[in-house]
Specification:
Length: 148
């Protein structure tokens, strides 16, 4: 029971941290938060971020719809797609949910597509990645390159 309570407390702290970043304008206009990009895999880190995203979904426009959408459900049930990118911007929930079957596809196709679709939401955007290594480091470097 102690471990479950500790994980719950850490999840609440992580959710509050994302909400603070959102209020500060890290994800676009303060209060609007449409310029977000979340990258997950099925690792424990990805599952922890997913729990946090479910808790804060109402604070990020379109995130609830993406988490309930058909494309996201496909990712959650499939062993074919280890990576998912959820992002703000224009389009339907399925258009704002990018799947990748490999790290190479994630870096070369899914992330650039997500950033292209996100840019119309405003010039400033922020990303949060929760992935196992070596994907976490590779995605961090790719996001820095895409930011330019």
């Amino acid at each position: 029971m102690g471990e479950a309570k500790r994980r719950g407390q850490l999840g609440r702290l992580a959710a509050e941290h994302l909400r603070q970043r959102q209020r500060a304008g890290d994800f676009g206009t303060p209060g609007a938060a449409g310029a977000y990009l979340f990258v997950l895999d099925k690792s424990p880190a990805g599952q922890e971020l997913l729990a946090v995203l479910r808790a804060v979904a109402a604070d990020f426009p379109g995130l609830s719809e993406a988490l309930e959408g058909e494309t996201f459900r496909l990712w959650s049930m499939s062993a074919v797609f280890p990576f998912v990118v959820l992002h703000g911007g224009e389009g339907s929930a399925s258009q704002r949910t990018q799947l990748a079957g490999s790290l190479e596809r994630l870096l070369e196709e899914s992330l650039p597509r997500a950033v292209r679709l996100l840019r119309p939401a405003g010039g400033r955007w922020s990303a949060v990645a929760a992935l196992a290594e070596p994907a976490h480091s590779a995605v961090g470097a790719a996001l820095e390159r895409l930011r330019d």
